[in-house]
Amino acid sequence: MSVITIGVGEHGATNTPGSSVKTYALGSCVSIVLLDPKTRTVGMAHIALPDSAVQPDRVKERPAYFADSGIPALFAAMEAQGCAKNGRGMIAKLAGGAKVMDHNSVFNIGKRNVLAIRKILWKYGLGPVAEDVGGGISRTVTVEVNSGKLIINSAGRGEWTI
């Protein structure tokens, strides 16, 4: 079983049977997972910030660092695997967006990431069918090609599926 590991600001997609896509330690970052039931393709982006206007040069290096450039990049990666353009017919799930190291809610990065992602998905006619967002925990997220399950792990909380 092969695992594609997604780092901060990275994205990837696969439809290879037995494989999975995984990202580690989501705090305020959000993992957007796309599943295409027709092609049995899964994709993931590890979004760190809502808007690329704060660092436009970084988009070339890591488009998925930002929600506004990461979601189109993820759609393109899915399309390269044989999926329809712009997420048509796909299922979206979200995980992450926690409030970590911002106990006074000064920046609200996690919440802003979740809201930006939802807004962009709605623009494409998509909305998350499941999500595990917010709170104050770090999450590791895995999505399996064979089952399409999104598995979340968190230290001290164990494992659950959405």
How many structural domains are formed by the residues?
1
Q: Distance between termini?
A: 21 Å
Which structural category do the helix and sheet elements fall into?
A: alpha+beta
Strand neighbour order, sheet with most strands: 1-3-8-9-10
CATH topology: 60s Ribosomal Protein L30, Chain: A
CATH class: Alpha Beta
Strand content: 25-35%
- How many strands, what sense, and barrel or not for the largest sheet? 5 strands, mixed
The chain-level mean pLDDT equals: 94
Query: What is the CATH architecture assignment?
Result: 2-Layer Sandwich
**Total strand count, please?**
10
Low-confidence runs: none
- The coarse silhouette is globular
Work out the helicity level: 10-25%
Kindly provide the radius of gyration, computed on alpha-carbon positions and rounded to a whole number of angstroms: 14 Å
Q: Given the structure, what is the number of helices?
A: 3
Topology as H/E string? Answer: EEEEEHHEHEEEE
